[in-house]
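Re-run requested by the PI after the first attempt was lost when the workstation crashed. Everything re-entered from the original request form. Ligand of interest: 2-(butylsulfanyl)adenosine.
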Amino acid sequence: MEDVLRLKYKDLIRQIDYHDWRYYVLADPEITDEDYDVLYRELLDIEKKHPGWIQGSNSPSQRIGGRPSGEFVTRIHRRPMMSLANTYSKYEVEEFDERIRLAIGKNPVEYNIEPKLDGVAISLHYENGKFVRAVTRGDGMRGDDITANMRTVRGLPLQIFDGPGKNADFEVRGEVVMYRSDFLKLSEQREELGLSPFANPRNATAGSLKLLDPREVRKRKLRVWVYELYGDASWAGTSHTGRLDILEEMKFPVAQPRKVVKSVDEIQAFWEDIEQRRNEFSYDMDGVVIKVSDLKDRELLGTTAKTPRWAIAYKFKAQRATTKLLSITHQVGRTGAVTPVAELEPVLLAGSTIKRATLHNEEEIQRLQIGPGLEVILEKAGDVIPKIVGRAPGEKRGEYTPPSKCPACGEPIVKPEGEVIRRCVNISCPAMLKGRLIHFASRGAMDIESMGAQTVELLIQHQLLMDPGDIYLLRYDQLANLPGFGDISARKLLNGIEESKKQPLERLIFGLGIRLVGAGVARVLARKFGHLDELADAIIKPKLLEGINEVGPKIAASMIDFFSRARNLQVIEKLRNSGVNLGKRYGAEEEVAPAPLIGQKFVLTGSLETMTRLEASEILEKYGAKITSSVSSKTNYVVAGEAAGSKLEKARKLGVTILNEKDLIALLREFESGKQN
Ligand code: IVH
């Protein structure tokens, strides 16, 4: 009897996988949603009776997502995940073709062309035909194990039932994407919640894959499209085109459309066709990839340090549209930066309606010479947010007056000398609230356990937090009733909050988020003044700040500004009344966070893969480093990411130590582990 049921169970898994494939890969379902639900419920019923069967079955029910993980495990790629050389010109494609023909002595060469999907690269491992592991690109050599997150991705086969690889061990590479329609829905939701929106589907995908809770990832409705198979030639064959066919047979979602071609003219025709129709596809593409199909030829051609010689990305040009700039409004970011935003007459660009575009800062507006009422040109390169690149031909110069009051709280805005950004410095400004609270509670600051971004968001949503002082007024009855909260989480949070009251002064100073006051400066100030009140006195006696090496005139001005605002002082009063340590250090032993980089000047340039430059700066500052914007002989280190330009060159000329992203991460890891010891 049980055997029959077990067979039934296996059959259900197979049926559901089949219908998932029809739905998510072919977009051509055979059965109704109701019929699908019946199958699914049957499956769950059996699993309820025989939970032991789930293990190792790769049942579709396991897509729901496992438990949240504390962090991702790092895994080394068996073969590095490389980048692609790219071009925007037919001429360079001709050169590419010529180079290949010469190198392998064939004419013509068979190429496979496929879309260049604009998402996040993923390496997928199968053992005995079962999905076992997914690893992100990371630095190309090693990435994060995000298996649990990938299980939730629609259309990814968890087990192979058909085709030659069904019992094999192999690796598949592809791109995780978010469909534009899902991205738009996500953006709306985030906007409603007051969360910062993602710039584009690719960023949303990257952000989603980094979530530690697979159940959250599942909600993001990610998809995957694959484009490379590494498996044994005995079943996978020796041509790329053949391998893609096999992947299709194995029911993988293979990147579409694709074509086998033998000349640059054919390549050009395919490229033009896709470029024209790119908005018809559900996902973003930023070009096509041309790949030599014969795998032996690929081997012959080999790779450069970063890219294979057998492939090239032929990218699409940025898309443009003209529309009217209706007005310029202002947004307040989490650090208080007030950014001008162009409100536009809605216009269709790259398949979506554009109504707004950031203008970055007033210098940008001056450079573009734009103003309300003018026709402007909007551009969207496949991979970036739409931006205004100029006035329409024949338009006169526009006019623009920057705001003097914060649009979110009405407090006066400051523009520090020599800076292009205007800022709101009101600590209670609602627009800045979330970022400030997250910073206040973060590890380097008050280190409040279980008060991460999501909790902060929830508390703001329920109007329980208006400023950092409110954290210490939270009550059990308020917390225990929040959605997703219960007795245990409420107690845990309150406990974390209580513990944080004893944090040393330097952490509080850092946590207040005074502009330009990083962890290093906070430490110096804490040592010098010993009590927050003494520090606040510096506004009446600014001389107190003179003679502190680490505190230059800009930092001094920023502090004076902070402590002269009544609202900031009210927050400090709240903290005092709640018993937060404003002076006198906690415990007999000095609890000072290590500052191995104190006095070291860093410049960051180019783009980093694993974090933004801002995040990197914040971490470095936490360890006492000073971040500056230009390279000089006083610079100790330059961190150079992808596409680093003149700053890197200058660093080389001056002989400044250059760190790549890997070096940086290794350095930070060292500090992190030092802290734990
Ligand atoms: S082949 C070594 N094929 O583009 C060859 N990559 O710029 C690398 N990408 O990291 C992969 N569509 O994330 C390949 N059809 C496609 C692709 C593709 C998008 C991404 C991939 C890679 C990046 C390189």
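Saved to the shared folder this time. Residues 82-84, 114, 116-117, 121, 137, 175, 227-228, 255, 289, 308, 311, 313 surround 2-(butylsulfanyl)adenosine (CB under 6 Å).
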